[in-house]
Amino acid sequence: MYKNLEHPALGSWPLQNAPFKMSETPAYNSLTGPLIGQHNKEVFEGLLGISHEELVNGFAEGTFWPKDYDRSSYPYLQDMIDDASKAVWNGIETSKTTPKTNGNKKDSGPFKNIRVLELADKKGQWCGKLMGDLGADVIKIEPPEGEAARNIGPFYQDVPDKEKSLYFWHYNTSKRSITLNLETEDGKQIFKRLADSADVIIETFKPGYMKSIGLDYEELKSTNPGLIMCSITPFGQTGPWKDYLTGDLLHLAAGGQMAACGYTDTDLPDAPPIAGGGGQAWHMGSHYANIAISAALMYKSVTGIGQYIDVSIHESCSLTREMHVNTWIYQKKIPMRQTGRHASPAPNQQSQHVCADGKYLNVAAQILTALTPERLHILGEWMKEEGLSEDLIEEKYRNPDSITDNELFLYFIANMSRDDVFHGGQKRGFNMGAIRNLDEVMQDPHLDDRDYWAEVDYPELGIKLKHPGPGGIFKGSPWQISRRAPFLGEHNKEILSGELGIGDDELSNLGKSGTI
280-303 and 248-255 are packed helices; what angle lies between their axes, rounded to 10 degrees? Predict the structure, then answer.
């Protein structure tokens, strides 16, 4: 997972690669993080066609580099430093580019006309949902008894039922469902016929299972060379841990997330690490799988060639560790758990504070540690408006160095409501955030203003339910939940008869034999 790259300042250092392997287009780091302006010449001259003289002019005038910034430590800029005194910047007018649109209809998504066969449990169903909500035709292929996630609560009206799992409803929107026993000969042949017209297969079986039943990638691509198959497994298809049993909690432990989350010993002695809830490991693996599949689809659109993708959830968790891996690689320091704050090698300032209404506010540490005289004055005026401070606007407090603690600020917070501090602080440019419960998130006016929530119709129950929406707005190819989560085998006839031409009698026999 690590690869040594040459850094222009640090020399040879290991960097993490992608948490997946791609058979045709290997994903790996080819460049280290760039130094400031390292590629100015390459981009401005090579890509935009700006002349070297014009670039030097802009360099001299501070257009591409702050005039008062020390340039001596950046040898790749030396040719411009040498030439800068000769030039006068005349300005460069660049043309604006028009964003491309895909020309699809309003109700189509960017994955329109992409067919996905999903053989996934909770480890990969989020990946299928992401693709389905973005327009792909996702066919969820379940065993005749139903995918295990149908038995995960809570349930609608608190009545356990395979068709009323709120968990399953959330993760399986925009999919169709058929039932198929892949261990029967008829089931295998039907799956092969479906695979012949598929663009993508997502599967989460144990390593080697698909090969053991004759449905591995090599077999399937022999009749569909453009097929993309993505396997999402706990530890990948290879390695000494590939057959280990695991779960979401164990992944967060092994990946390093738990070690960085929880209480410090001073706040709660002997407190154990804490893991985030909600299947975070499955989300990480599915997100990286979605990225890899998107890249493979782009490659296929150019070459017509599919490929096999091996996603490791363990590597996905290990990569999703903020800056912690690099902190160890470069400094040999381990970030410590810090109550309510980002883990860090050194203690940092408390950021969560209770307000007058008993609700909590998260305050960025730099509000108190990086106050300029101007920012301090704004804070003082605000406190004065609220009638909560007379001291902070005095001359002695104009110098941030004279503030040795945050007692005044905490007094200010403690005497105002959380939302008043949050909105008042944001209006004045202070980085603060309200710590909210889910009921408050559901009533968020900002989300309402952006039409974030999606109402999904459940006609069989006579209800419409609110579902979370997308993380971004797609102008040309809108995201949408096209249908509620499917009932078990709801689309057997539609797909097996309507698309594969299986007759009613044969369909009935397949049901009696346990194939569907």
Answer: 80
Helices (H) and strands (E) counted in the chain, each on its own, are 20, 14
- CB–CB of 330/10 below 8 Å? yes
Residues taking part in catalysis: 342
CB 229 within 8 A of CB 203: yes
* Domains of the chain listed by start with CATH number: 2-86 (no CATH), 115-319+483-512 (3.40.50.10540)
Q: Which two tokens stand for residue 222?
A: 């022999």
256: left (phi over 0), alpha (psi -120 to 50) or beta: left
pLDDT in 10s for each residue of the chain, 516 residues: 666 666 666 666 566 667 777 877 776 665 556 666 667 777 777 777 888 777 777 777 767 666 665 656 555 555 655 555 444 333 333 333 233 222 223 357 899 999 999 999 999 999 999 999 999 999 999 999 999 999 999 999 999 999 999 999 999 999 999 999 999 999 999 999 999 999 999 999 999 999 999 999 999 999 999 999 999 999 999 999 999 999 999 999 999 888 888 888 777 878 888 888 889 999 999 999 999 999 999 999 999 999 999 999 999 999 888 778 778 778 888 888 888 777 777 777 778 899 999 999 998 876 666 667 787 788 888 888 988 766 555 565 555 555 544 666 777 888 899 999 999 999 998 889 999 999 999 999 999 999 999 999 999 999 999 999 998 888 888 889 999 999 999 999 999 999 999 999 999 999 999 999
Beta-bridge partner residues of 466: 455
Residue 184 zone, left/alpha/beta (φ > 0; ψ -120 to 50; rest): beta
In whole angstroms, give the CA distance from residue 364 to residue 373. Answer: 18
pTM of the model: 0.83
